[in-house]
Structures are given as C-alpha cells and as structure tokens.
UniProtKB/TrEMBL annotation:
InterPro entries given in the database record: Alginate_lyase_2, ConA-like_dom_sf
Identification of the protein by name: Alginate lyase
One MF term in the entry's GO annotations: lyase activity
Keywords: Lyase, Membrane, Transmembrane, Transmembrane helix
Ranges that cross the membrane: 6-26
One Pfam family linked to the record: Alginate_lyase2
Organism this protein belongs to: Trema orientale
Domain Alginate lyase: 45-219
Length: 225
C-alpha cells in the first residue's frame, strides 16, 4: 500500500470536502470552457427572427447597435401576433437551427437593467405536450432563476454575464452555466423539436418595463468524434 505524505493527505481531504460550486470555480480558474468539444455554427442577422408586439413598429421595441441586441417591452404591450393569447414579448427566435436530437448549446452575454422583473430572458423552446419549454431563465427582483425557483444567481442587475445552456436531447438533460460555472443541472421535458430564444417575455408579476441586452450570441453543436 502506498504511503502518502501528511501534506498530500491534507490536500486530498480538502478536495474531497469541496462543494460542487467550489470545484466549478476551480475549473474556471484553470480555463474550463463549457464550449469545449462543440462546434460553433455560422450565424448572421437572417438567423435572428424578432418577435415583438404586433401593433408597434419593431424599432420601438428592438435595436441592434455596435453588436448589442437591445430588447424591451411594457407590461401593457400586445402579444407578437393578433391571434396569440400569450403575454407580451420581444425575443430573438434563433432560426435555421431547430433540432430534435443531439447535444446543442446556446451561448450569449446578457445584461439586465435594474428594475426589470417577472420576465423570461432565455428559453429552450419545445417540450412534451404538458409543457411549452424545456428551460426558462427568468429574472425576479435581480435574481436569475430556473423558471420561478430555484435562484441560480442572486444579483445579476447592471452587469454583463455569460450564459451557456447545454441541451442533450437523448439523455433528456439540461445544464446551465453562468460565467463559465455550472449553476444548475435539470432534467429535460421531452418534445420532438427545439430551438433557442432570448430577449424578454413577460411572466406573472412582471415589472412595468422589461429589458435585456444580448451580444456574442452563438449556437453550438457537440462534435461527433
């Protein structure tokens, strides 16, 4: 049996007792990248379909300046279609990369101004008939949440943060990384077709004005080695 020095034994005990979050931060410090093993797919403005209140000119709810998508709505806004019964939204619907199998990833840098609340800022659309979405990232009073709960990050107002969402369809598995750190691991919700969306989509108890900004948006697919 191998003998370990006292220092080695102490280090082993420290590693064993580290929490998952602490281990994730260690990975980040040593250059862990959630996009490793994925291929970034080509995107241009034609892939960004804007869904905004149907009765308002798009430029009154969306702008794209110097690489930053700014999307906003008011609580009194109409839905994105005259026949829709859903809440108001201004969202980017990623077009051209709908998927039904494989491992896919969304990446983007998000910014949520102070005061925005009761809103979904990113979603994986598509699920079994009992659900519309596989994942929603929402903001309530400055906290980033998975649906309504749990809280993933307690204070995200007024700063840029990196969002990576990995969806493994066959494994029915979803992982959420914020600033490179795995913050939530959830089961999938079934469904036969999925796509990514980001922006603002009003939820219950929404604020009067809701806004998010996005830059560096990417869609990635797991390499098939």
């Amino acid at each position: 049996m191998r003998d370990f020095s006292p220092l080695t034994l102490i280090m082993m005990m420290i590693i064993i007792n580290l929490s998952v979050t602490q281990l994730n931060y260690i990975k980040l410090a040593f250059g862990f990248d959630p996009t490793e093993g994925f291929i970034s797919l080509p995107l241009n403005q034609s892939n960004f379909v804007i869904q905004s209140p149907y009765d308002v000119p798009q430029n009154q709810r969306y702008s794209f300046v110097q690489g930053v998508h700014r999307l906003w709505i008011y609580s009194f806004d109409k839905p994105h279609s005259p026949i829709s019964k859903t809440s108001p939204r201004t969202e980017i619907r990623i077009h051209g990369y709908d998927y039904s199998s494989g491992v896919w990833q969304f990446e983007g840098y998000a910014y949520v101004p102070h005061g925005t609340s009761g809103v979904c800022i990113m979603q994986v659309f598509g699920a079994s008939p009992n659900h519309a979405t596989t994942l929603m990232l929402r903001v309530y009073n400055g906290s980033l949440t998975y649906y309504r709960t749990p809280v993933l990050v307690a204070d995200i107002y007024d700063r840029w943060f990196r969002v990576n969402v990995v969806h493994d369809v066959e494994a029915s598995d979803v992982k959420v990384y914020i600033d490179g750190v795995l913050t939530y691991h959830a089961p999938g919700r079934g469904g036969t077709s999925h796509y990514f969306k980001c922006g603002v989509y009003a939820q219950k108890d929404s604020s009067y004005l809701m806004e998010s900004r996005w830059k560096g948006i990417k869609v990635l697919k797991k390499c098939d080695y």
